[in-house]
Amino acid sequence: MMRLLRIRDLEYFIAIAENGSFSRAAQACGISQPTLSAQVRRMEDLLGVTLVERRHGQVTITTEGAEVLVAAREIMDAFHRVQRTTKGDGVMLGRPMRFGILPTIAPYLAPRFLTTVAELSETSDLTFIEDRTDQLEAGVASDHLDFAITATLPRANALTAIPLGDERLVVVSRHPLPERISLDGLDRPVLLMQEGHCFREVVSEAIRRSQLRSDGAKSARIGPSSFATLVSLVRSGVGDTILPEPYARHSCEAVAGLSVALMEPVTEGRQLYVIVRAGRERYRDVIRLVEAAREAHRQVGGDIVQGGDAVARSASPHASKL
């Protein structure tokens, strides 16, 4: 029997080209690296050419591979256009769905969101993964994720961001705090997330606007990768930190010895988005899912966005001021 290329083969090859490594591409596709490598070898055997060169952990697309990549992207674009044409409103509820969400959002939003979606459709099988923004965007772009909940606008033209809600910032300390406090009123180090983390950019910008600097007396060069570690450092007395209000209310207020105060000015914060492939923001079920996410966000203490319009992309990779 003659073997043929499959849509999934093209998706895998495109993921390798976009991620620059087999490990990151496998993660974006939700499969193991050996499986991805085997699929690429199968594709190379079918086409009779070498698509990628692997040297010292680096992946380079060959000349023949570059030509195939152009054709693969054209085929996938046409495939998605056919899907959008034939699906109409896009039936998502009532079938298995997989979405992605940032680890800094999942602890307080995912449980409430899953419950809200279950109320919309008892037949929906909804699962999710936690990952970095770039991996979530890659998953949505390659259709391995139906949508993602992030805190930054997507960089790819193929993706659309639908505003979900705003989150104010709060100060968390082991010392007593008033109900509201400005950064200028802190006399302890402000602990930040690791370099490159999108939430660090949010806090750094707030610090800049308060005439503070990340290497100044009121901040520390400590770079954990999770909010939970920041909270542990605060409990140990290393310094204070700044977190999104819903996370702090969910994870910190019940912790003995921690105080939470709304940060002034209250316009400081981050915005959350639902990320989908461009064109799907008009699907009836996508609209219903976004409304479910907004309701879940409202229930956990976020500021709701009423009927926010979808936006294609932003040149800025960072979360914005509210």
UniProtKB/TrEMBL annotation:
What are the annotated GO cellular component locations? Answer: protein-DNA complex
Similarity comment text for this entry: Belongs to the LysR transcriptional regulatory family.
Spell out the molecular function terms from Gene Ontology. Answer: DNA binding; DNA-binding transcription factor activity
| Highest taxon listed in the record's lineage | Bacteria
Query: Which keywords does this Swiss-Prot/TrEMBL entry list?
Result: Activator, DNA-binding, Transcription, Transcription regulation
Which protein are we looking at?
HTH lysR-type domain-containing protein
Which Pfam families did the record assign?
HTH_1, LysR_substrate
